[in-house]
Amino acid sequence: MTDPWLVVGLGNPGPSYAGNRHNVGQMVLDELGRRAGVAFGSHRSRAQVADVRLGVLPGGVPGPRVLLAKPTSYMNVSGGPVASLSSYLGVPVERLVVVHDELDIPFAQVKLKRGGGEGGHNGLRSITSAVGSKDYVRVRVGVGRPPGRMDPADFVLKDFSTVERKDLPWLVDAAADAVEMVVLEGLEAAQQRFHSPS
């Protein structure tokens, strides 16, 4: 358990984007940082980072080392900071976890997978290109499809609706739980929990 993990929350930089659906990955990272009682600081890789021990193992032993990272680049060039941090930490793709918004999952659902396509998500496409592999874990936070004929690109750059904001803390909490479970118990255990009918 000495090998570190890299957990990345995707989003766009700056306060004008902070409440957007596209930034839900960074909201989840903020929750993980809050749970660990740590603040994020700047890193030369163009990311805000926090170095934590995630969870507690049997016997009260602190969990594995995890670097939480929020790229300060725009979403579509997230790959550079992620590849830089992966190289800096010596983290193989198997211990890279990316938390991101997902249009193809209903709002307030969390799904997990390793590898696969990017589904038109430019942040994932950039990461796949930069790290040279699709085989990282994705924690997919459902934001649902846009209403009517709204362009999906416009939809993800809008804030959550008033109704959605009532459930947003629960969704962020669930996604943070999913990240912890992947690191502590493995992807399959997390999938069994989060993919089961509630």
Q: For the residues shown, what is the average pLDDT?
A: 93
Cα-atom Rg, whole angstroms?
Answer: 16 Å
CATH topology: Rossmann fold
Please indicate the count of domains: 1
CATH architecture: 3-Layer(aba) Sandwich
Strand order of the largest sheet: 2-3-6-1-7-9-8
Question: What's a concise summary of this model?
Answer:
The protein has 198 residues and is an alpha/beta fold.
Explain what this protein looks like in three dimensions.
This protein is an alpha/beta fold and 198 residues long. The chain has a single domain, classed as Peptidyl-tRNA hydrolase (Rossmann fold, 3-Layer(aba) Sandwich), CATH 3.40.50.1470. 36% of the residues lie in helices and 22% in strands. It is built from 6 helices and 9 strands. The strands form 2 sheets. A 7-stranded mixed beta sheet has the order 2-3-6-1-7-9-8, sandwiched between helices. Strands 4-5 form a two-stranded antiparallel sheet. A hairpin with a 3-residue loop joins strand 4 and strand 5. The longest helix is centred in the C-terminal third of the chain and has 24 residues, at 162-185. The radius of gyration is 16 Å and the shape is globular. The relative contact order is 0.19.
